[in-house]
């Protein structure tokens, strides 16, 4: 028999596809050699692919015996190698194979060569060089498959502008391409300021996608959409996505379930988050992490600890994130001893060495509780070098508890690690301002000016009737600006009637008290609250997302506003949630 017998060839290829061991594959390979099937590209490609999944060295042996491998065979092996589990080693091998393609004058790379290689790129520079090769060998007329792989590469390294440009060049993007761009918006964020704008872009892109009747969202789409809603606090859009999942029977797997838990938690609806968690047929470590984190940022430290213990009885082993969210939950409510026990359990119960992020949680836990000196000792005694996040946590604790000496030490380290981060200077300036050391405030501000640094402006998002509205400090660009400022004036008078005295110590400038009060009045969350009082239903909760920590005066004012106007006000700042109701806050002034 030979390769001209189609029935025998079909049987041989059928046996090949069912091979699950190297020995069975070798037997079929021998038959293929005998019948001459190894002289044909398609059977050879199947043999290379299957052998690479069972034993990559054997696949390379087969490949090296092929006299003149075609580009199709090279592409098959490169793709198989990239899909291998030993990623670091096989990435090097894949590019070695690509180098052989470049040296072979009889063949040229084609549009199937590059997508796998872009997946394997270990650095931005390698990807840029590969992009140059795409232009060299394929010109500008490469297909959407290559375009999408380029999009994914640039998104992976945070260049969302280029990724979006590439996306916009695709005439009829399929679902996978839409998902790539949506997911890119969820993973390419590098700062809190970008987080908001990028999440807005994701929602706008999804709206565009809905205009195409041929493209229907799947689990990947909805995870990207729900994640954007979580970042923005866009509850209405998040609920719409959840309803879509239920209406079209989209599988509520770990990823969709975790995204929904995270979204409801970050939108201030902890009860709904727990309903999703409790209703999941199966829960993995990601689901537990999201729910524990949700309890934490809402100030339910005891519930977070209970869930942490429950998770262990489900035969789930805590991962690095589990320890972080559980310790953070303890930190938010002052459960210092419990949080320290979680930290100690990392090594004692699980045989792991605490990582930098775990030490960061420990420093924050001790610092918030006023044990600033102990926090400093733990930081200095770490087995690894502290990063800027840890020093900033110590600086924040020193500011809250008035430990100027520790605050100055922390700032010195921060200036070495992050000389261009405005928040570091602002924290120390606030400390000096609170004790009227205005010369030191000016000195810190001069340092900022010398480094060309501007303070990050406060920004607040509020959702009213399903639409998101953004406000900056002193913002007068909103179409309802006159009504907003009129409402602010009314709110200010009513606060005075209730005996509110503005807390001006954190205002950085050495100015008159009256000017300081004005500066506080126009904080972004005040504008957002005023707008919601004017524009929303009088019974609806007011939900606000702020990019910075809520200042003490806004915190006190919002407590009173919730009582005066009978409104529930839910504020998510950079650190946690504050639920204001009837003149009180869920944080109990511990934040």
Automatic annotation (TrEMBL):
The lineage of its organism: Eukaryota, Viridiplantae, Streptophyta, Embryophyta, Tracheophyta. The keyword RNA-binding does not apply. PPR repeats lie at residues 284-318. Belongs to the PPR family. PCMP-H subfamily. This is DYW domain-containing protein. Gene3D superfamilies: Tetratricopeptide repeat domain. InterPro entries: DYW_dom (IPR032867), E2_motif (IPR046849), E_motif (IPR046848), PPR_At4g14850-like_plant (IPR046960), PPR_rpt (IPR002885), TPR-like_helical_dom_sf (IPR011990). Pfam families: DYW_deaminase, E_motif, Eplus_motif, PPR, PPR_2. Residues 499-591 form the DYW domain. The keyword Nucleotide-binding does not apply. It comes from the Eukaryota. Keywords: Repeat. It comes from Gossypium arboreum.
């Amino acid at each position: 028999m030979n390769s001209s017998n189609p029935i025998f060839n079909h049987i041989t290829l059928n046996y090949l596809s069912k091979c699950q061991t190297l020995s069975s594959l070798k037997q079929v390979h021998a038959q293929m050699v005998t019948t001459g099937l190894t002289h044909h590209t398609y059977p050879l490609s199947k043999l290379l692919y299957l052998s690479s999944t069972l034993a990559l060295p054997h696949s390379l042996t087969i490949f090296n015996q092929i006299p003149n491998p075609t580009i199709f065979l090279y592409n098959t092996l490169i793709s198989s190698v990239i899909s291998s589990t030993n990623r670091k080693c096989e990435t090097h091998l894949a590019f070695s194979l690509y180098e052989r393609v470049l040296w072979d004058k009889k063949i040229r790379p084609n549009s199937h060569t590059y997508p796998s290689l872009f997946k394997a790129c270990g650095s931005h520079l390698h990807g840029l060089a590969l992009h140059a090769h795409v232009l060299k060998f394929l010109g500008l007329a490469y297909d959407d498959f290559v375009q999408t792989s380029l999009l994914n590469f640039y998104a992976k390294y945070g260049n969302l502008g280029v990724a979006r440009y590439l996306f916009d060049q695709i005439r009829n993007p399929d679902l996978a391409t839409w998902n790539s761009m949506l997911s890119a918006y969820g993973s390419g964020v590098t700062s809190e300021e970008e987080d908001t704008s990028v999440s807005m872009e994701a929602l706008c892109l999804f709206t565009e996608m809905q205009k195409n009747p041929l493209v229907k969202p799947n689990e990947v789409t909805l995870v990207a959409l729900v994640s954007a809603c979580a970042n923005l606090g866009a509850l209405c859009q998040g609920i719409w996505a959840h309803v879509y999942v239920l209406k079209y029977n989209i599988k509520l797997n770990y990823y969709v379930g975790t995204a929904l838990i995270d979204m409801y938690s970050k939108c201030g609806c902890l009860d709904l988050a727990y309903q999703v968690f409790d209703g999941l047929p199966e829960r993995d470590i990601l689901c537990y992490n999201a729910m524990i984190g949700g309890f934490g940022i809402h100030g339910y430290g005891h519930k977070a600890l209970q869930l942490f213990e429950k998770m262990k009885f489900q035969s789930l082993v805590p991962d690095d994130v589990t320890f972080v969210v559980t310790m953070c939950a303890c930190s938010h409510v002052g459960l210092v001893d419990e949080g320290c026990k979680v930290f100690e359990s990392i090594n004692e119960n699980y045989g792991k060495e605490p990582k930098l992020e775990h030490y960061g949680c420990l420093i924050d836990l001790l610092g918030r509780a006023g044990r600033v000196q102990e926090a400093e000792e733990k930081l200095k005694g770490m087995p690894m070098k502290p990063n800027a996040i840890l020093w900033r946590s110590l600086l924040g604790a020193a500011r809250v508890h008035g430990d100027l000496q520790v605050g100055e030490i922390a700032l010195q380290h921060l200036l070495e690690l992050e000389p261009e981060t405005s928040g570091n200077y602002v924290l120390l300036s606030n400390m000096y301002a609170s004790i009227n050391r205005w010369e030191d405030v000016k000195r810190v501000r001069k340092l900022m000016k010398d480094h060309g640094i501007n303070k990050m402006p406060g920004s607040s998002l509020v959702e009213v009737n399903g639409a998101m509205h953004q406000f900056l400090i002193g913002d007068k660009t909103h179409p309802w600006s006159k009504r907003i400022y009129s409402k602010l004036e009314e709110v200010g008078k009513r606060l005075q009637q209730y005996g509110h005295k503005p807390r001006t110590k954190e205002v950085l400038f050495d100015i008159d008290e009256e000017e300081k009060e004005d500066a506080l009045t126009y904080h972004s969350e005040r504008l957002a609250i005023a707008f919601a009082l004017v524009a929303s239903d009088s019974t609806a909760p007011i939900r606000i997302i702020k990019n910075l920590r809520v200042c003490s005066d806004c915190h006190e004012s919002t407590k009173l506003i919730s009582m005066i106007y009978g409104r529930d006000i839910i504020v998510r700042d950079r650190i946690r949630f504050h639920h204001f109701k009837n003149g009180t806050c869920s944080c109990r002034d511990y934040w």
